């Protein structure tokens, strides 16, 4: 633990918790070389394995899927996990397919409305920043401008951290599920026309897993 730099020495040495490592995950290659690491500042928060598989290896998320179709694009919302617990960090994605000859503007564009993914405020989750893919430069010959855009197919991703149980529980339905909602705002254009800005609702439904609070058998408890 010392060699990996994960020994938590902020705990007093006479505490029963001294020697407990910082929680996190390492990714190793076939030569046992660490290629990535995933750690949070709080011991109460953890990246899920599915989140790491998606972030590190591009595994396509299949959980909490729903489809939405707009006038100039269609999208599939998905998540790295469908069953979540307090403190877990999971990834949400918007898999976007533009209709033929259409483009939307990327963040950083000037004079146009960029694509924007907003999350509805919720006590149940904390939303992190959106991860946007690299855009392409499109030259608009009619007005002699070059702008950053997305065309064809692209993926947006953002992490959320599930809140503490006291915050999540009031949002649960009778089946123990809760919904995370957001909107995707964009202005699509083709070679001749920029269309009226659109706003599409998106959502993800999660099953909440409470912590197992049953005590371990007496013979296994710390003496």
Written overview of the protein:
With 223 residues, the chain is mostly beta strands. It folds into 2 domains: 1-39, no CATH class; 47-210, Immunoglobulin-like, CATH 2.60.40. Helix content is 6%, strand content 44%. Strands 3, 4, 5, 7, 10 and 13 form a 6-stranded mixed β-sheet that branches. The chain is elongated, with a radius of gyration of 22 Å. It starts with 23 loop residues before the first strand and ends in a 15-residue tail after the last strand.
Helix and strand layout, with pairings?
Elements: E1 24-28, E2 34-39, E3 46-47, H1 49-57, E4 63-69, E5 73-79, E6 83-84, E7 88-98, E8 103-105, E9 116-119, E10 125-131, E11 136-140, E12 145-151, E13 153-162, H2 165-168, E14 177-186, E15 188-189, E16 198-208
Parallel strand pairs: 3-7, 6-16
Antiparallel strand pairs: 1-2, 4-5, 5-7, 7-13, 8-12, 8-15, 9-14, 10-13, 11-12, 14-16
- Shape annotation: elongated
The CATH topology name of the largest domain reads Immunoglobulin-like
**Helix-strand sequence:** EEEHEEEEEEEEEEHEEE
Unreliable parts? none
Task: Briefly summarize what is shown.
By secondary structure, this protein is mainly beta. The protein has two helices and 16 strands.
Summarize this structure as a short list of keywords or feature phrases:
single chain, 223 residues, mainly beta, Immunoglobulin-like, 2 domains, 6-stranded mixed β-sheet, 4-stranded mixed β-sheet, elongated
């Amino acid at each position: 633990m010392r060699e990996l730099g994960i020994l938590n020495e902020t705990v007093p040495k006479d505490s029963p918790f001294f020697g407990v490592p910082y929680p996190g995950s390492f990714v190793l290659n076939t030569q046992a070389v660490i290629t990535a690491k995933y750690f949070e500042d709080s011991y109460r928060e953890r990246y899920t394995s599915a989140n790491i598989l998606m972030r590190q290896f591009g595994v396509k998320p299949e959980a909490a899927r729903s489809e939405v179709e707009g006038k100039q694009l269609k999208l599939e919302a998905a998540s790295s996990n469908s069953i979540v617990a307090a403190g877990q960090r999971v990834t949400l994605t918007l898999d976007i397919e533009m209709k033929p000859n259409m483009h939307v503007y990327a963040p950083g564009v000037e004079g146009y409305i960029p694509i924007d993914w907003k999350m509805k405020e919720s006590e149940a989750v904390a939303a992190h920043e959106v991860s946007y893919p690299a855009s392409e430069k499109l030259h608009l010959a009619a007005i002699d401008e070059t702008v950053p855009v997305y065309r064809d197919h692209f993926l947006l991703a953002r992490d959320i951290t599930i809140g503490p149980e006291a915050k999540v529980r009031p949002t649960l339905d009778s089946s123990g599920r809760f919904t995370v909602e957001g909107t995707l705002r964009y202005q699509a254009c083709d070679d001749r026309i920029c269309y009226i800005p659109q706003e599409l609702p998106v959502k993800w439904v999660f099953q909440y897993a409470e912590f197992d609070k049953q005590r371990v058998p007496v013979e296994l408890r710390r003496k």
